[in-house]
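Problem: given the chain below (337 residues), write out its structure.
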Amino acid sequence: MAEAASVYLESVTATDIGVQSTGQKETTQLTFVVEDQNGNPLTKENSVDVDFRFGARPGGSEYITDETVTTNSNGEATATVISGNLAGVVQVIAEFTMADGTTVRSSKPVQVVIHAGLPSQAHLTIIPERRNFAIEENGQYPVKVKAGDIHGNRVPDGTAIYFTTDGGFIQGSAFTVDGEATANLTVANPIPANGQVTITATTANDTEQNISISTNVLFTDSPIITVTPETFDILNAEDQQFDYTVMDANGNPMAEGTTVTVTVDGNEIDLLGDLDITIGAPNSSFNNLDVTNYSFIIDDANPDVTNETPVMITIEVAGPNGTARKTISGTKAKVRP
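Solution.
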């Protein structure tokens, strides 16, 4: 009867398993075949005991159920691996001893990965599609949550995320796919008094505790334009600075994409500054000066002309929040007494 001479991996029932207590498949079976010196699988008559052990492993209490298995009539021996509480790659080594005492081992491919624990607070992220929503739009907008486990691996598909909001309303729950879950926020009542809306996403971690993450967005109303000064009398060869704001009644900026234009009707005038603006998104802390406060300068372009002439300035706003227009008037090129 030919003696056993080699061993190789024949099949794996699951190359990806989850860490324990995450609701995923936690076991996999690796079947090895032992062949004799002629390249034929062993039979019952020349069976051998195959020892199984780990090569590389996460070290999270994963284990092999039977460390020694006798080959069957097809020369097969199967190792069952059960995951532990750590993610990582797993190598299973199969080996047997020949009559002369030589140890024959299988090759060392990385065939199994243990991955995807439950969500970790440190790896939880919430990302709204936008930061500023015009009340007039009355639309639905996605809010995305990205979730990873304590090892920085994405959580298992189907992990539940619960959503709440104190402004409008939001889809109550969503389930992760590739580590992400998305719920739709609807712009509607209630509108918080200051327009600032808090959205919170909650899930559970591997210690059976709720973990949450929140973000703020704005529900903004119709545009209001203010400008200082509202009347002016520019002396000959001088200039005048105007400071203006575009915001709603709560002092919040207009929705992203709103346009602001400043035009002047008058002769011999240079107009400089914030004249043609497309408003961007506010930052997450809503320090809104850079998206609400602007300025421009009117300069007497021809000091040789000393007669007083009328000037009209128009500021116009158009965007998702609606439109607004403000006009102020004055004079320029007045000779100093």
